[in-house]
């Protein structure tokens, strides 16, 4: 594969944004006390399903992108629509296969996640249910990590709700990233971010690490969202979406710390730095 074609595929699956995915499995596994093998399978499964969703998203939006984002791989002709759809189907199958190698609950959760991803891309994205569907997908992604435990882990439900709430708020902002114009969406996302940070910073296991990660979460998401609320132009709104997406990593680290896996926090925060550097070269939206 040539360098130009490799870059096109990296753009299609939003390569840097994929670094926000493994932390879901880590946070879920910490809450569920899942064994390392099943956590690794959950990471692989969720990465495959994330890439599948990105490829399917651009396949479904190819006509819209030809008008608003002609530089993307499909409208620019660098990747054929059939190849993108085939990649989405193949990656979905791979994600389900990896989950099936774990536990039955992991397979069931991955199946629900895959169904949510396909429903969002093909039907729900441009409806009022779109942000909630995207939030549900992220929540299920965290639960996929918890599903690797030997027993059900109800402790994973609260962090899944927090991840889902943040994601839904940022997704609502993303609806205005082309033309801008909305102050309400970034303001609502700011309020959600503050509420999520407060919930994560409550007393619990490894509270000091959790509070530090919660502060990093706020510092990653809030400034760009505040600028988007102050000046809701397309570029400022896109920057708010990027900040909100990258903020998932310190949020995952905080949730893992609250579940007693504070040692995972430095590793996850390293992913944040890498994602920031790569996002300067390849768009995450």
Please provide a written account of the structure.
Keywords: Membrane, Transmembrane, Transmembrane helix. This is UbiA family prenyltransferase. Its main location: membrane. It comes from Streptomyces chisholmiae. By secondary structure, the protein is mainly α. 74% of the residues lie in helices and 0% in strands. The protein contains 13 helices and no strands. The chain is globular, with a radius of gyration of 18 Å. The mean pLDDT is 94.
Q: What is the CA-CA span between the terminal residues?
A: 24 Å
CATH fold name, please? Tetracycline Repressor, domain 2
Question: What share of the residues does DSSP label as strand, in percent?
Answer: under 5%
CATH architecture label: Orthogonal Bundle
Taken together, the total number of domains comes to 1
Structural class: mainly alpha
Radius of gyration: 18 Å
The major pleated sheet works out as: none
Q: Give the helices and strands as they follow along the chain.
A: HHHHHHHHHHHHH
CATH domain class name: Mainly Alpha
Number of strands: 0
As a percent range, the share of helical residues equals over 70%
The CATH homologous superfamily? UbiA prenyltransferase
Pfam families: UbiA
Membrane topology: Multi-pass membrane protein
Protein name: UbiA family prenyltransferase
Subcellular location: Membrane
């Amino acid at each position: 594969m040539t360098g130009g074609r490799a870059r096109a595929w990296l753009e299609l699956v939003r390569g840097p944004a994929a670094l926000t995915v493994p932390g879901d499995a880590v946070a879920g596994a910490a809450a569920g006390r899942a064994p390392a093998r099943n956590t690794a399978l959950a990471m692989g499964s969720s990465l495959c399903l994330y890439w599948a969703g990105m490829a399917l998203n651009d396949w479904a939006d190819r006509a819209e992108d030809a008008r608003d984002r002609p530089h993307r791989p499909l409208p620019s002709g660098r990747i054929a629509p059939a190849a993108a759809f085939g990649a989405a189907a193949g990656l979905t199958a791979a994600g389900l296969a990896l989950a099936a190698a774990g536990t039955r609950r992991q397979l069931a959760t991955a199946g629900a996640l895959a169904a949510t991803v396909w429903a969002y891309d093909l039907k729900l994205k441009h409806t009022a249910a779109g942000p909630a569907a995207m939030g549900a997908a992220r929540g299920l992604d965290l639960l996929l990590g918890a599903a690797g435990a030997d027993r059900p882990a109800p402790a994973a439900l609260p962090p899944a709700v927090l991840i889902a709430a943040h994601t839904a708020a940022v997704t609502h902002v993303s609806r205005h990233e082309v033309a801008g114009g909305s102050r309400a969406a970034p303001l609502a996302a700011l309020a959600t971010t503050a509420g999520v940070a407060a919930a994560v910073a409550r007393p619990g296991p490894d509270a000091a690490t959790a509070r530090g990660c919660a502060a990093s979460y706020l510092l990653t998401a809030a400034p760009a969202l505040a600028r988007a609320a102050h000046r809701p132009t397309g570029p400022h709104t896109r920057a708010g979406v990027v900040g909100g997406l990258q903020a998932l990593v310190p949020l995952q680290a905080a949730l893992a710390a609250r579940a007693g896996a504070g040692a995972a926090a430095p590793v996850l925060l390293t992913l944040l730095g890498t994602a920031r550097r790569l996002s300067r070269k390849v768009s995450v939206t």
